[in-house]
Amino acid sequence: MNRLLSALLCMLIGLALPLPAAAWWNDEWTGRKKITLNTGDSGAVTKESVTQAVVAVRLHTGNFSFLDAKEDASDIRFIGADDKTPLKFHVERFDATNELAVIWVQVPEIAAGRTSEIWMYYGNQKATSASDPKGTYDPAQLLVFHFAESSGNPMDSTSFGHNAAQSTAKIGTVGVLGSAASFDGTGRIGVGAVPSLRVPATGGLTVMAWVKLAADAPGGQLVQFGEAGRGLTLAIEKGRAVARFITAASRGEASATNPLKPDAWHHLAVTVGAGRLTLFVDGEAAGTANVQMAETGGDVLIGTGLRGELDEVSVASAARSADWVRVAYATQGGDGRLLAVTDGGAAASGGGDHAYLGVLVDSLTIDAWVVIAICGVMLVISIFVMIAKAIYVSRLDAANQRFLKDFARIGADLTRLKEASARLGGSSLFRLYRIGIEELEKRLNRDDGPAAPPALRSVGAAAVMPPPIDEVNLSVQTLGAIQSSMNGGLVRENHLLNRQMVLLTIAISGGPFLGLLGTVVGVMITFAAIAAAGDVNVNAIAPGIAAALLATVAGLGVAIPALFGYNYLATRIKTVNTDMQVFVEEFMARMAERYSR
Q: Which residues pair with 171 in a beta bridge?
């Protein structure tokens, strides 16, 4: 249906700008999206390439049609830039009902200073799930909490399985991506000390988390990794982010200058490596300190004393680069300039290039489809009315012209065309003429049949023949009565001429308003989906907004042809109506001249 309506809109609008189709990974998948990663000047600028980065791909009504994929996302696949290499990924959330999804993908390399791309395929009802949480992260990633659980303690998404041993936080509040953990100042999450959580002195450390402080919350501990009194701590003190790394040999501390804005999400990260501790706030370095790396391990405590919310808490046994942290911030919930989901072109079996208009049709919401369908019905009805009415008016006008030629040749006897219905029956002027002649003959008391004997009139007790027609003298009142009958016929002819024209006026006035309604509702749904998904980049907004505008285009596509057709038909009808009015006046004038003395 999408392709059929896309073709119809292309015919109506005449705008189909093709996009080149690239190679297709597997013909069993009917749809794909291109995911562009932009680290150039217009994106999230990085100085060095980032390898094995895990990016968050957010899908919503503005960039993806959930009706084209399986409800459980088991047909989703991610392929590398070569359109051949499958990529590791896992689905955190895929809500086909509310049309929101968050999928984590491991990208082999994100080049610095330019755009790179990967592909997402979908639309294979026979496919089984390939989601692989444990394979998505590299071996250095020790712990990742998405807080996507509907019940129970938070679960680790890495291959280590460092699930929370105890939790008093509330899981399920709306986070920066999906769900988040909420803390009231008394609860916390603990993982427990296990051997696989120990980091050697030759390694490094990275802790990242998204935090939203309550308005009246001065601080709290976000993540503490290590034994009591030692290890790495990421905290909020007096509204400012603070990072500490304490070992037996050294102590380092870095704090941000500016306080965090309450009731707003902020991305915090701290890295330890190469003798330096670095604190990052929203993807940018906010403070540094000299430290000496030492073996670190023990419990992981999350949210101690915090009043607020946490999302995407992670611990890695490597000092991630500044560009890695910037990429994580940009894809998970930053300004949205790094990652964009756009149309991926048509399948090789789909028959050619995919048009920009097809991208918009793929982004249409249900309400827009309803409005466009209604507009399509209105357009069909309008076209039918215009064609039928144009044929009727043309035939009527031609018949009227034939009648006028015959009427001009009848001379003094106005009744000569009375029996010409076989040739002139389609003329409205002839029907008015018949009304006038019948009314005249009623006044003359003559029978309408050509072979009928003369009728008799009773005058008292005597029977006399009607006077010869040449001797008839019609009064002014009689002429007025005949004209009134003809005017009544003229009104009925006008009703017949204007029948169904109201359908065109409905299309002209109602089409644009109906299209505007579809656009407004579509824009509302798009913004609501974007707000829920947290993806605010222009590439996420533009397809949904542009698709919503198709409803207005559909409304105008109904109104404009109907407007032209209505004006043309109204002019033709007015001409025929004028001819009928002139004929009535001319007929009455000739009747008065012939039968009134």
A: 181
Dihedrals φ, ψ of 524, to 5°?
A: -60, -45
Q: What is the pLDDT of residues 222-275, one digit of tens each?
A: 999 988 778 999 999 988 999 999 988 889 999 999 999 988 999 999 999 989
Single out the residue of 510, 518, 552, 512 nearest to residue 365, CA to CA: 518
Q: Which candidate, 54, 46, 39, places its Cα nearest to that of 316?
A: 54
**Residue 510 phi, psi dihedral angles, 5° rounding:** -85, -30
Q: Are 553 and 351 in contact (CB under 8 A)?
A: no
338-to-39, 115, 329, 537 alpha-carbon distances in Å: 6, 9, 10, 9
| Paired tokens of 554 | 């559909």
Question: Please, what is the Cα angle at 100 between 95 and 103, to 5 degrees?
Answer: 90
Distance CA 422, CA 362 (A): 57
DSSP string over 348-384: GGG-SPEEHHHHHHHT--HHHHHHHHHHHHHHHHHHH
Q: What is the pLDDT of residue 303?
A: 92
Q: What's the Cα-to-Cα distance from 130 to each of 137, 163, 268, 435, rounded to whole Å? A: 15, 22, 31, 83
Q: What whole-number distance in Å separates Cα of residue 137 and Cα of residue 160?
A: 10
Of residues 297, 306, 278, the one with CA closest to residue 221: 306
| Integer angstrom CA distances of residue 67 from 25, 234, 275, 539 | 21, 42, 52, 20
Q: Looking at this protein, which amino acid is placed at residue 581?
A: Q
Query: What is the pTM assigned to this prediction?
Result: 0.61
Q: Are 398 and 390 in contact (CB under 8 A)?
A: no
Burial label, 153 (beta-carbon count in 10 A; 0-12, 13-18, 19+) = middle
Q: At 243, which helix (H) or strand (E)? A: strand 240-246
Q: What is the DSSP string of 41-67?
A: TTS---SS-EEEEEEEEEEETTT--GG
The backbone region for 236, taken as left when phi is positive above 0, alpha when psi lies in -120 to 50, beta otherwise, is beta
Tokens of 123: 């639309």
Q: Quote the crossing angle between the two packed helices 366-407 and 538-595, to the nearest 10°.
A: 20
Tell me how many degrees the CA angle 68-70-72 measures, rounded to the nearest 5.
145
pLDDT at 429 over 60: yes
